[in-house]
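Support reply, case 0932

Customer input (verbatim):
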Amino acid sequence: MREIIQVYRKNSLKPMTYDCIEKVDHLNLPYFVLSIPRSQRFIDQGDIFMIESWNNNRKKVLFSGLVSLEGTQNVYFGNWKLSGNSKSLICLILLKDIAEIHYFPNFCPVGKFSQMKYLQNYFQVQRKPMQ
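Our regenerated output:
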């Protein structure tokens, strides 16, 4: 499985909004917005942030709760529901003004604990997450 890593820069005019700075937008995600969960369901799941994005036709293409990756700072993960019931694992690394999305197409272990363990192992093998 091959992951896609895409880099975003914090938008200085729009709070909690990040714009893609890649020359090629492989994720078809020109920007995303982070927010604090308002729904009790997401709060009960331990979500720290909600991540959302829309395409040029104003159709929501990404909506997920993000939980903190244990043993790291500023690293969060969730899943990106695709068409049907298919999901892909996503991991967000936040730095001062930069964010990295690690996207694992068509791969999402079942359950938050399995996702967390996979990502902890992934970062130990690949590289240490930025802190």
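We compared this against your earlier run and they match. Two observations from our side: The mean pLDDT is 89. The beta strands are 4-10, 17-20, 31-35, 49-54, 60-68, 75-81, 87-94, 98-104. Please reopen the case if you see a mismatch on your end.
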